[in-house]
Amino acid sequence: MDANLPILPNHPRVVIIGGGFAGLAMAKKLRKQQFQVVLLDRNNYYTFQPLLYQVATGGLEPDSIAYPLRKIFQGNPNLSFRMAEVLHIKPEQKVVETSIGDISYDHLVVATGSQTNFFSFADQEEHMMGLKSVPEALNLRSFILQNFEKATVSLSTQTQDSLINIAIVGGGPTGVELAGALAEMKRFVFPKDYPDLDMERMRIVLLEATPKLLGGMSEQASARALKDLKTLGVEVELNAKVSYYDGSILITEDGFRLPTETLIWAAGGERSVSQRNQQGQNCGWKPHPG
Ligand SMILES: Cc1cc2nc3c(=O)[nH]c(=O)nc-3n(C[C@H](O)[C@H](O)[C@H](O)COP(=O)(O)OP(=O)(O)OC[C@H]3O[C@@H](n4cnc5c(N)ncnc54)[C@H](O)[C@@H]3O)c2cc1C
Known about the structure:
The protein is 30% helix and 25% strand. It is α/β, with parallel strands linked by helices. Strand 6 and strand 7 (95-98) form a beta hairpin. Helix 4 (134-152) runs antiparallel to helix 5 (157-164). The chain is elongated and about 70 Å long.
């Protein structure tokens, strides 16, 4: 029990699950106070998600956006980090069940973030690429480049098109940034790296289900994003709801079709499974009465 954590008398133990934005902010607030803070994360690094698209498109290497969690808290004796996947919370016993054993707590903070929401396409998830973590960003980068390699040796233009076309579903900040970065790769990187392929044929299509890009932002921002993406050569399909995708052909409700082996799902998030499983178990942060 307790993953070999130090015993700190008179320091109520606060276990924080998740070393993302929220978990780190909480840990930093508590590190100089009379608590033993135990931060748990399935990874031993913090991910700066806003720049994942740069890793996916080769603009940055993973270590530029992933930072070792242990380094952040060096020199703080009341803070411990354990790399562990939290599997279950037992609020009656004040214990979290993890991949490295049970850990007890006095107070529990659940800051496990979100995961990709594939909505009604959950059963086709295997054909789609998400962008929420460093491994997903690297998978995406590698998948695109492998498809380009395959296209180079394909004799069929139809197959080539399907291999080099890219669909991005979701015209929020992630979809817009990614579409822009891919358009720049199409212009400046791919023609040099793949001179045997006709880059004019490559289509980068951004599909958004509502009438505008960047729905949560101002009208000017939406209009500017649309204009800039079009200038970069991105095809933007508004009011376009994907109705079918089988890994090689995408079809929208109004009949738009795109042959593509690469569908990037940037259309939404939902609370992580861990948070949903813990729902109703009274495991949120409560200040210590003392
Ligand atoms: C591609 C992308 C671009 C974004 N761009 C922006 C932007 O430009 N500006 C902006 O403000 N926001 C942006 N966001 C949103 C922002 O990143 C999130 O709002 C923020 O990360 C949420 O912080 P969090 O701490 O709740 O969760 P996260 O940062 O996701 O952290 C959750 C942590 O919990 C860990 N975890 C989850 N489940 C478990 C478990 N069972 N056991 C152990 N550990 C677990 C995970 O490994 C992770 O480290 C972007 C998000 C994405 C995906």
